[in-house]
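Hi R.,

As promised on Friday, here is the backbone we talked about, encoded as structure tokens. Could you run it through your design pipeline when you get a chance and send me back a sequence?
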């Protein structure tokens, strides 16, 4: 069982490093390259990975759900068994705190186990049966039975900011495998060794359960070519992506260039506005300020759910609120390590052009430590100036936030009218503030996939009720989530069987309900067998 990194892609369980363009991860804490050298996957390696996935698809789709659940649980076990070695490498490649990475590993494994539980229960099959109605009105109705099937091989692009939970064994991979789809992961170049180690955890689980070796492959690469070859390969049927708006949009456009376009489920950027009402500020100003600063600085602001714009009422507590946020965000209590030099360059350039050059604003900026670090930045302006400085409405990926002070409900409404869509919006209010808050909820609901009340948006709980998505640019498909068990629906499609004899039906649709799952039969949820 392979458990040590070799500086390679992992194709069908086999290490492969035939490419050019050597690259290394860089330790953000020292800004020094790490020892292990990697190479971009070649076009032949990409083709081999997809070909193996296509060859594996029918067999994997036919595997009982209980066995795929075993696979997900085995992957989780293997990740845990990598122990400190995985955490040590991830810490060095990302600069993320060890406690954060331990929590992320737990989240990754819990996510895999949750998907296993869901497919064992048959929830993913979404069975709907309408029995025949020969005397039905306005016309007779045949026997109709619907379930879901996997779409085919899925390409997954790892995120930079979550080397475990949104990476090689993250939610996209877990949901695609749960749906019955082989997966080809394009690793993120910022953490290639973490990716390779995780890939062996998956490949070893595939091998231990005797599943087709094309069930999973990992492709390394620091340049665009391997990802481009992957998306354009005719064997790939869907794409999962977590990253920037520019990256997600590029993949969407690339997928549309194919002779047969495919869906790209891209979770991208978001401003994540926070609205504080006058009553909330008067009642809880210090509490909200501390929570906001912690949310902005979590992971050095490198969360797609980081609150980027705070709409704050003018009042007796406003200045104290601003002072506290500035003190907390720009203090030098600990360095803000960014994940890569390119991320730091983009953040500093964006901050300089968009946040520090405002004609009618004030900026506070912390200091920079050694390594790949960035200062905490707070920008303050009047809400009425937002419409003339639309750059403050862009996502700023790093430890920065904008405070915009409104003098009236009309000023607040004017800003809400120009807010971009995205993943989340947060309201800090008091319970007795209806109907004004009701109107605020209605407005924000039209722009985001998750509304938060008196908390902060940064954490995204893995749960069936979670929706991590939203209108563009939050995601490319606002109807789907990338977190929680319903994420697997991205990689399924429904199929209806009309007037089939029982012996020709798949197990989820048979009269006897041999899987013992809950099905919707003639509008009623039941696990009882059917009688013809």
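Update: got your reply. Pasting your designed sequence below so it's all in one thread:
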């Amino acid at each position: 069982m392979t458990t040590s990194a070799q500086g390679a892609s992992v194709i069908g369980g086999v290490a492969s490093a035939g490419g050019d363009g050597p690259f290394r991860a860089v330790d953000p804490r020292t800004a020094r390259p790490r020892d292990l050298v990697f190479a971009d996957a070649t076009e032949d390696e990409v083709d081999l990975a997809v070909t193996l996935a296509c060859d594996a698809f029918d067999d994997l789709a036919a595997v009982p759900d209980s066995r795929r659940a075993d696979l997900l649980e085995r992957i989780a076990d293997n990740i845990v068994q990598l122990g400190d070695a995985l955490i040590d490498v991830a810490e060095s490649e990302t600069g993320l705190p060890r406690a954060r990475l331990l929590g992320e590993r737990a989240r990754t494994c819990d996510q895999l186990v949750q998907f296993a539980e869901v497919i064992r229960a048959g929830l993913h099959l979404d069975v709907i049966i309408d029995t025949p109605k020969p005397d039905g009105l306005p016309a007779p109705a045949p026997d109709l039975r619907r379930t879901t099937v996997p779409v085919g091989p899925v390409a997954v692009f790892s995120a930079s900011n979550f080397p475990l939970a949104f990476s090689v064994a993250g939610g996209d991979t877990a949901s695609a495998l749960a749906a019955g789809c082989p997966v080809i992961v394009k690793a993120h170049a910022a953490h290639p060794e973490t990716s390779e180690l995780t890939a062996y955890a998956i490949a070893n689980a595939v091998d231990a359960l005797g599943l087709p070796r094309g069930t999973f492959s990992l492709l390394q690469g620091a340049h665009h070519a391997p990802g481009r070859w992957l998306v354009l390969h005719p064997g790939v049927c869907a794409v999962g992506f977590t990253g920037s708006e520019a990256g997600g949009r590029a993949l969407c456009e690339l997928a549309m260039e194919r002779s047969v376009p495919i869906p790209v489920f891209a979770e991208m950027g978001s401003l994540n506005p926070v609205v504080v009402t006058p009553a909330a500020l008067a009642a809880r100003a210090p509490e909200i300020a501390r929570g906001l600063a912690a949310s902005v600085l979590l992971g050095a602001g490198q969360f797609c759910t980081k609150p980027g714009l705070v709409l704050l009422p003018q009042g007796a507590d406003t200045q104290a609120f601003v002072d506290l946020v500035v003190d907390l965000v720009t203090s030098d209590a600990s360095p803000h390590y960014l994940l890569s030099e390119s991320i730091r360059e983009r953040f500093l350039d964006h901050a300089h052009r968009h946040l520090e050059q405002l004609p009618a604003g004030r900026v506070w900026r912390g200091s920079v430590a050694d390594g790949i670090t960035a200062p905490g930045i707070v920008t303050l302006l009047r809400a009425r100036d937002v419409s003339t400085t639309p750059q403050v409405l862009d996502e700023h990926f790093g430890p920065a936030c904008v405070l915009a002070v409104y003098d009236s409900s009309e000023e607040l409404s004017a800003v809400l009218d120009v807010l971009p869509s995205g993943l989340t919006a947060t309201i800090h209010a008091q319970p007795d503030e209806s109907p004004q808050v009701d109107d605020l909820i209605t407005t924000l609901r039209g722009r985001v996939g998750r509304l938060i009340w008196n908390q902060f948006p940064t954490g995204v709980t893995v749960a069936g009720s979670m929706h991590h998505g939203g209108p563009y640019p939050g995601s490319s498909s606002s109807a789907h989530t990338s977190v929680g068990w319903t994420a697997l629906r991205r990689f399924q499609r429904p199929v209806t069987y009309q007037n089939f004899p029982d012996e020709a039906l798949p197990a989820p649709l048979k009269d006897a309900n041999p899987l013992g799952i809950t099905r919707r039969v003639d509008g009623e949820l039941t696990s009882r067998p059917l009688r013809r």
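One thing I noticed while checking it: Residues 273-453 form a domain with the Aldehyde Dehydrogenase; Chain A, domain 2 fold (CATH 3.40.309.10).

Thanks again,
M.
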